[in-house]
Amino acid sequence: MASEFRYRRVVLTVRGGGLPAPAFRLAAELAHWLELELEGVFLEDEALLALAGHPFAREFSLLGHTWQALDPKRMLEDFRLTAEQTQRLLADAASSLGMASAFSVQRGDLAALAERFLASDILVTVPSAPPAPAESLFRCAAAMMLIPPRPRAAPGPIAAVPDGIGLATATALARRSGETLLLIQPGESEAAPVDLPPDRVRRRRVPTNDAEAIAHAVRAANARLLVIERAAVPNDPAALATACGVPVLIVGDGAEEKASTG
Predict the structure, then answer these.
(1) C-alpha span between 138 and 186 (Å, rounded)
(2) E-strand spans in 62-210?
(3) CA angle 42–136–138, rounded 5-degree value
(4) Does the pTM of the predicted model rise above 0.90?
(5) CATH number assigned to the domain covering 158-251
(6) Domain covering 9-146 assigned CATH 3.30.70.1290 in the classification
(7) What tens digit of pLDDT does each residue of 106-139 get?
(8) How far apart, in Å, are the Cα atoms of 134 and each of 55, 110, 127?
(9) Rounded distance, CA 89 to CA 22, Å?
(10) Domain boundaries, the chain
(11) Smallest Cα–Cα separation from 88: which of 121, 145, 130, 40?
């Protein structure tokens, strides 16, 4: 499977606040279904650490309802604890599927980290507000899976806006997961042929190829995942994931060629 799509690994990226628990299972399932390596990267926020070094920097304590100085030592300890929890949750998710996982801690910012990923990677993250990090990630070479803050993590169809490698990837995911494939077809687009038994394929027409129409079709079908070509993604990919309520796997846009030469 990995050679078919030229993907090598799924990389789950985690920042200081951690991730919702379902994100670890979702990343592990994706790696399992596509037969890829699974890695986790905890990112220590370099800009936040630099800010903590300034005497004027303050943070609001929810426990004491007071403002207090940002303490670099306390921040590093918080990072260490979150990293340990992240490694444990990822290892547990992988183990439950009979997989191994790798883990590392790096320091920097997510946009800079994303530049080091290749088209052979699938980057998994939960976009935060404001949406700037997601926009930066959208320009990197890697494919990506954006997980909404409160993802629906339950069985359901694999949805796809069918085109090129997006259709091939969604078909492979449906076949390996045992789920039905839901093809969301905008406007009068032709029905794409699918290498699955007819009873494993559903089709749903939507009037336009915009985020609202796609998200409505995903929610109505109780889909567990949406696969979409990068060129077909609306302007705000993070908003699409939030509207769908399930992970959005974004593939394509020359990733195959970059992977073969990078």
Answers:
(1) 23
(2) 66-69, 102-108, 121-125, 143-146, 158-160, 181-186, 201-206
(3) 100
(4) no
(5) 3.40.50.620
(6) no
(7) 877 767 777 788 889 999 988 764 444 455 556 6
(8) 31, 9, 6
(9) 10
(10) 9-146, 158-251
(11) 40
